[in-house]
Amino acid sequence: MDATAPQEPGPPILDLWHPVAILAELTAGETIRTRLLDRDIAVGLDGEGAPLAWLITGEAPGGAPESLPAIAAYEFAWTSLGTPPAEIFAIPECDEPDRRNLATFSVGVHVSAPRAVENFLDLGHFPYVHAGILGQVPRTEVADYRVEVDPETNELWALDCEFFQPQAAAASTDGQMSQYTYRVPHPYCVMLYKSCPTDESRFDVIALFCQALSADRVLFHTFMSVIDEVSSDEQIRAFQTLVSAQDKPILENQTPRLLPLEVGAEASVRSDRASVAYRRWLGDLGVGYGVIPAGLPDDGS
Amino acid sequence: MTAPDPASLLHPVAAGADLVPRHVVRSRLFGRRLAIWRADDGFINIWEDRCIHRGMRLSAGVNDGAELVCQYHGWRYSNRNGNCTYIPAHPGEAPAGALRVATFACAERYGLVWSGDSADASPPSIPALEDAEVLVLRSLPVNAPVPLVLEGLARYSFRPTAALGSDIPVATSADAGNPFSVTVTATTAGAASSVVFFVQPADAGRCVIRPVLSPAPAPGERLVTLRHHAGALEELRAQLEDARPTEIAVPLPVATLEPLRSGGTGGAAGGRRPQLQVRVARKWLCAEGITAFELVPVTGELPSFQPGAHLDVHLPNGLVRQYSLTNGPDLTDVYRIAVKLEPDGGGGSRLMHDSVHVGDVLDISTPRNNFPLRRDAARTVLIAGGIGITPLLAMAQTLARQGLTWELHCFARSDDHIAFGEMLDSLAGSITRHVGLTPEQTGHELGRIVRPYAPMNHTYVCGPGPMIATARALAADAGWPEAAVHFEYFKNESPRDDTSAFEVALARSGRSLRISAGESLLDGLRNAGVDLPSSCEQGACGTCIATVLEGEPDHQDVYLNGSERAAGDRMLTCVSRAKSGRLVLDL
Amino acid sequence: MIKLYDYLLSANCYKARLLLSMLDVPHELVPIEFYPRREHESAAFKKINPLGHIPVIDDDGFILRDAHAILMYLACKYDGGRDWYPTGDPRLLGEVASWLQFADGTAATASAARLCINFGYDFDLEACQAGAHRLFRVLDEHVWFREQEGLSWVASAAAPTVADMALFPDVALSEEGGISREDYPALRRWTERIQRLGGFIDMPGVLPVAPLPS
After folding, report:
1. How far is C101 from chain A, CA to nearest CA, in Å?
2. Distance (Å, rounded) from C-alpha C182 to C-alpha B57?
3. Could you write out the DSSP letters of every residue in C19-79?
4. Is pLDDT at A297 greater than 70 in this prediction?
5. Which residues of chain B have a CB within 8 Å of the CB of C202?
6. d(Cα B307, Cα B262) in Å, to the nearest integer?
7. Staple A66 to which of A55, A103, B170, B412, CB 3.0 to 4.6 Å?
8. Closest-CA residue in chain B for C143?
């Protein structure tokens, strides 16, 4: 299933906005080439600094590229290969004046976008994959939490999540319970709201925007919107670099690379309820790209 | 020539020498990815290279000597049977018995490790390798299909050692019984030496040549011989990989490798667990009045267990008794239990002591765990009274192995009454013996032990009923939350009242039963055809638990703690009854 | 204190971090944001290294660039040219030098493949991967024969040398560049031996290994 069977994205994916470049890496008058959903595309900026995108068809570099819709949102340029909605999903927190919005780290990962999203939704791996940062053995318990699909927006939420986080300061031996809320507004995008260390009434936003290069390869783009007057941009990016780079070898060792939607294809326990709900939600949306749809055999290769 | 079905044969998947301590080899056979590891007890595990939880490669996992630990969420899988023994996200719960990785057949011969999907198959028997000591030569992966490689090997210009000239007559033979090997024999001065090239079919376009030389060269010739063959094979590989695919004379035999035991991802099956037959392999007096037994499987491997688990032993006279496993995680080929002689008991212990002998076959249940050990505690306090040490011994070994902080307190009449006393001495940890104390002194010591409570501390108490009651009360006084105090009664010593009569409605089947005075709810359910598993039938083990949808249970068990009782949503059907006139159960 | 101009995900910087840790030399990491800001190519950093690459060390004003040069310098200065860089043994020193040269090859292939996949560098990925496999075959065979000789490390010494440190990151991180180590069982054992050395530190992409029984 992995590399052999080409998959067609189909309308549920084609009609979405997809991240294709970090705005700060674009220069007016120049284009960069990238891939999206098995297609070659070019991304640039117009004179006003708004993103532009083209589909590159055929062999000839001089051939007329087909213009694609493009928008700027959350420090990224987004495009679509179908008929996208007028607006991208809202992250209202980003408009708050004291927020810092940053594209933090992007890395290529040889895995499907849904596997990457599922990993982002997962608390149980913190003490193993992000030891000393987001979790610490033996404090491995995942307390029960709630999962809901918002009937208005059809977004998936995981609520009242809590996990033990070791203290960042090396001198301290105590950790604390950190609160998390997860939101999946898009099959390939996921964000979490985490209690802000400097203001407990507000939440930092950390998001993963997957650019599906193909069914089993992604560019793993991360974005943060934080209330932080202390850390430098470099420090914030360095933190996200470390965390993402720790996830990469795990994701690349998962087999199959596509996410199996069949119930029972992989064993799930209570702490996996967000992952189980995400798989069902993808199936309900009719997503067939980056996944092994329910009912198809998963040969494990 | 009719070739045998390739999948019915065993194929080499590694060299025995590749399986160094605490390592996991990554291999492949007919496209199946394999994780291969040797436990500290020498057993070789060949598993599908995929954690059943989220597909992480187990060949990237940690071989801790007794278990393989997945790097993603720390799921632990047992040596031998591949059962999941611990799920760190849920430290207080025993993993469902159905959770296991897919396992493949394993055999060792000629210094190689062999696998396939038939438990009955053996590695090929090659006459040239039978009569002398062999030397496993360096294996070589080749990016070429099996038939092409076999053809190439048949042309291999073989000289047993580098010292001999290239004009030695060489005989090549393919073994009809094993189409995946080529034997090349050279005879010099009347002495024959052979190399057998086994070819591991990794997948359609890739294989691994695994050569074995016989007889082994003299020690002084060993390295030069290894280099000689490695060099010659390297040349052959270059030719094979340059060859065009059109040169393939025979297509690759199609085979699909199926695991002996497929991985399981579901929850535990309901109803009674399958029974198992074991043979008594060893019986000895492990303390004053306590006999230890080691039980080995009559066939196959023993199902896995977790610390705290117990077995039902079906005695020859029809009695069923529960005994805790004392095994640490590294002991997976026997079940070790201990039986205290209870002169006033129901005769089970007398029978075990006097009438069960080495060589006898016993029927047992698979291990069940109603006393699971959390491994996320900052400190774990184990408190044993008498024979209650048995499950705690399993826990202590697990905690010691994982480097966690723990202490064990053994209360006994004397040092001679402490089961497996010599094993305690070998455990690195804080072990305190409290011997010959009066009940008052015991209470005083328990009070010292359980105080003070600190967050993330857990205590496990196993022993006589009064001692558990005292320890629980003292812990509660010292501020221990109920969820941090775990206990296992061997029996329910409190008096039971079965004089009530009540109505039971079964929500799933829509039926209704009448339970009369003197009849247990469990028996009433069974008479109505509801097959509920049970074990101790004394309200101690928790096996016969049922979910209560409506009505107020009359709890008479010692299994549920206070808050679980108060919640009233679960009950033990063997002893508990109804306070309300009617119960609705989720059955 | 030694300053190391460093990027967390750089295999070359990791070589220097590893040896500093194994030698237990106190040091300060100065992060250079290779991605996304390409700080190593900034005018400010080019004053430190006109070539615009990392790692670079600053040992009390003595500035030295290039991972292998840094390894040799650190081993001579803080290990007296004994085990890690055996200056007193010409044959051994020759072996170490030849494997350092070999590590330039793994950097140009395995490490380059990793840059392609991680950060979209415009190299010929397939050529990089094929080149890495050619080198890994040679290294796996070499390490396998070392094991047959009763030795554990790349050079024929009882103790590891800077050659092991120079080769380890590219091998251990190869799968990020799409280069599987399934066909290199001896290399998989060798990387585990290195991970069990006292003072070993990991980096993202290097998964922990089991300790040996005591």
Report:
1. 28
2. 12
3. HHHHTT--EEEEE---TTT-GGGSHHHHTT-TT--S-EEEETTEEEESHHHHHHHHHHHHH
4. no
5. none
6. 25
7. A55
8. B138
Distance, in Å, from the CA atom of C160 to the CA atom of C19, rounded to the nearest integer, reads 11
Q: State how far the Cα of C142 lies from the Cα of B318, in Å rounded to an integer.
A: 64
Model pLDDT for residues B491-523, shown as the tens digit of each residue: 666 677 888 899 999 887 788 899 988 888 998
How many whole angstroms separate alpha carbon B380 and alpha carbon B391? 14
C 171-190: CB under 8 A from B: 181-183, 185, 188-189
B79-119 pLDDT, tens per residue? 999 999 999 999 998 887 778 999 999 999 999 999 998 88
Domain assignment present for A144:
yes
Phi, psi of C105 (to 5 degrees): -70, -40
Closest CA to A300 of B104, C55, C169: B104
Contact B78, B332 (CB under 8 A): yes
Q: Is C115 helix (H, G, I), strand (E, B) or coil?
A: helix
Contact B456, B365 (CB under 8 A): no
CATH of the domain at A231: 3.90.380.10
| B418: its two tokens | 């402490």
Cα separation, A15 vs C146, whole angstroms: 57
Identify which of A221, A150, A212 has the alpha carbon closest to the alpha carbon of residue A182: A150
Q: Cβ–Cβ of C33/A234 closer than 8 Å?
A: yes
Can you tell me whether residue B6 is helix, strand or coil?
Answer: helix
Structurally, chain C folds into a number of domains equal to 2
CA C159 to chain centre: 17
Of C149, C181, C211, the CB nearest to B223: C149
CB-CB neighbors (< 8 A) of A34 in chain C: 120
Under 8 Å CB-to-CB from B469, ≥6 apart: which residues? none
Give the Cα separation of B53 and B265 in Å (integer). 8
Secondary structure (3-state) at A60 = coil
Residues C15, C108, single domain; the answer is no
Are A132 and A59 within one domain? Answer: no
**In chain B, which residues have their Cβ closer than 8 Å to the Cβ of A260?**
55
Q: CATH number for the domain including C17?
A: 3.40.30.10
Phi and psi, residue C139, nearest 5°: -70, -40
- For residue A256, which residues of chain B lie inside 8 Å, CB to CB? 55
Q: Which two tokens stand for residue A132?
A: 């000393």
Is the pLDDT score of B370 beyond 90? no
Q: Is the pLDDT of residue C19 over 90?
A: yes
- Whether B65 and C213 have beta carbons less than 8 Å apart is answered as yes
If we measure between CA atoms, which residue out of B65, B85, B64, B66 comes closest to residue B75? B85
Domain range spanning residue C23? 2-79
Q: Which amino acid is at B396?
A: A
Residue B53 CB partners (closer than 8 Å, separation 6+): A266, A267, A268, A269, A272, B70, B72, B73, B75
Report which residue type is found at B7: A
Which residues lie below 8 Å from residue B326, measured CB to CB, with a gap of 6+?
B292, B336, B337, B338, B390, B391, B393, B394, B419, B420
| C156, C99 contact by CB (below 8 A) | no
Query: What count of residues does chain C have?
Result: 214
Per-residue pLDDT at B274: 44
Residue C201 domain-assigned? no
Q: Report the alpha-carbon distance of residue C123 to residue B366 in Å, rounded.
A: 57
What ipTM was reported for this prediction?
0.96
Q: What share of chain C is helix, strand, coil (3-state, %, to 5)?
A: 50, 10, 40
Considering C79, C102, C128, which residue would you say is the last residue of a domain? C79
DSSP string, B438-473: -HHHHHHHHHHHH-S--TTEEEEEEE-HHHHHHHHH
Distance CA C118, CA C120 (A): 6
CA angle at A43 for the pair A37 and A48, rounded to the nearest 5°: 140
